[in-house]
Every structure is written in C-alpha cells, then in structure tokens.
Design goal:
The protein has one helix and eight strands; from the N terminus they run ββαββββββ. By secondary structure, the protein is mainly beta.
Length: 107
C-alpha cells in the first residue's frame, strides 16, 4: 500500500526540539514479499526551494539515513530497514527546509 503525507513544514527554531514521527504498517504478506525481494519499500520526499541546502537525519525504526541535498526530491530504498507491522519514520532536520510530501510506497 501507499501512504502520502502532505504539506509538512519542518522548522528548527526551538531550544528543545520536538520532531514529528510518522508511522506506516506492513502486513505479514507485504513484509514477506519485501523479505523475499518480490517487493521493495521506498521513502520519497518532496521539498521546496530547489538549489537550497537540505540536511537531516531520518530515522526508520532504529536505523538512520541522512539527507544532504540541494534537490527538491529525495528517494531511498528502505526495504532493509522495515519490520512487519508498525514502522516509524522520524525526521530530525539539521537546517530549515519545508517538506511538502512524505510518501512510503511498496513496489
């Protein structure tokens, strides 16, 4: 299944930052397809300000990946980071940028 989260703005102006977390679920059947390499799970982000630096750490469950880009899009295969059932995505920005869409797809 596909999940779309739209119109998200991430600002890092707080002394004690609170970071949003998002969840998505993989059924037993979906998870088995990912483990059997019949399907892949992709994380895709769309951001504003192409050409402007965007840096963040993204936590997928207990594993982290990094963004360091000036592009307005980011895509990563996260198949090796997902678990059966509920999965957590947490974005911890290093600088300020606006996240327009966060999408997790099973392909």
């Amino acid at each position: 299944g596909d999940f779309v989260i739209s119109q998200i703005q991430i600002l890092n102006k707080l002394r004690t930052a609170l970071f949003r977390s998002y969840t998505f679920d993989l059924t037993k059947n979906e998870f088995e397809k990912v483990r059997g390499e019949d399907s892949r799970v992709f994380l895709r982000l769309v951001m504003t300000d192409k050409g402007k630096s965007k840096k963040a750490t993204i936590w997928i469950n207990d594993q982290k990946i990094s963004i360091d880009t000036t592009s307005d899009t980011f895509s990563r295969d996260i198949s090796d980071l997902v678990v059966k059932g509920e999965n957590l995505v947490k974005i911890v920005p290093t600088n300020e940028f606006t996240l327009v869409t966060l999408k997790v797809t099973l392909e």
